[in-house]
Amino acid sequence: MAERFARAGWSSRSSSWYGYEVETGWCQAELDPTEGSDTLLNGLVVPEELDTLASLLTGFGLSFTLESYDDEGTLLREIRSR
């Protein structure tokens, strides 16, 4: 998964035995494999770029749910792949 981000121009580096950190000017995220073929993407994204991230993940052919929360933990927005 990190290779896909790197090919899209993001920086990528190993952050654990299996995890990677990917970063661009508007997003920093950890990619951690889960059971099966799923990957957990957890991190920070400039709120105005959430649609850009969704488009990128869609372009990768992935099924996903993106959630954005405020500082108090209230869900502000959710985007699901089709």
What does it look like?
- The structure is a single chain.
- By secondary structure, the protein is of the alpha+beta class.
- It is 20% helix and 41% strand.
- The protein is built from two helices and six strands.
- The chain has helices at 2-7, 50-59, and strands spanning 11-14, 20-24, 27-33, 39-45, 65-69, 75-80.
- Strands 1-2-3-4 form a four-stranded antiparallel sheet. A two-stranded antiparallel ribbon has the order 5-6.
- Strand 3 (27-33) and strand 4 form a beta hairpin.
- The mean pLDDT is 92.
Task: List its salient traits.
82 residues, alpha+beta, two-stranded antiparallel sheet, 6 strands, 20% helix, globular
Strand sequence of the main sheet, in spatial order? Answer: 1-2-3-4
Number of strands: 6
**Helix and strand element order:** HEEEEHEE
- The termini sit apart by 20 Å
- Structural category: alpha+beta
Tally of separate helices: 2
Please give the share of residues in helix.
10-25%
Using the alpha-carbon principal axes, give the shape. Answer: globular
Q: Report strand %.
A: 35-45%
- Oligomeric status of the shown chains? single chain
Mean pLDDT: 92
For the largest beta-sheet, the strand count, sense and barrel status come to: 4 strands, antiparallel
User: What is the alpha-carbon Rg in Å?
Assistant: 12 Å
Low-confidence stretches: none
